Amino acid sequence: MKFAVALTLLLALAAPALAQDSLNCRQVALWPESPELDAEAWSIALDPERNLAFLGTFLYDSIWENWTFCILDISDLSQPRLLSANIVRDQGDSYDVHYNSNRLYLGTEGDGFTIWDVSDPTAPESLGVFDVPYAAFRMAVAGDYAYIAALGHGLRVADVSDPRNPVEVGHCAIGSAWDVAVAGELAYVVTNG
Fold this sequence. Notes:
Number of helices: 0
Strand content: over 45%
Radius of gyration: 17 Å
Strand order of the largest sheet: 3-4-5-6
Order of helices and strands: EEEEEEEEEEEEEEEE
Distance between the termini: 31 Å
Structural class: mainly beta
Number of strands: 16
């Protein structure tokens, strides 16, 4: 089944009495407005200082299915503008997108993640690939380390201080790891039980 990428920006109004009411949100934009772009969005990351949104997407066309990421200018919330659409690999899903200090980390279905320099959002540069035989389903990046919720392969930790050569430095077999967040010296992992 094919879906359209929809980036919906919601504005929550600050009325305390309506805090539990869904009527306190309204859509202020939808991207893309053109239905000819046939894609699914899987994840989103933001750079609020530069007014950028990074979408992990899966594009369809008549010959190939490609996973990619799109970079949008969201400085005018009523009209998000596409700055670049970047095909990364044929066949597969882009599960997660994480942004940290002009680097974009794209988690993949079955072979780790890729690292991109997005300092120029109109022309991102591929830096490196963390090529492993498991999914990077969800990620968190803190300092020089990427923490990967790798489904049945548990929690994985990669040193990304050299983005052209990321290296696995640790793992924890904790069942299926579905998501991860990092605070200080602790990683919080959602598992299958």
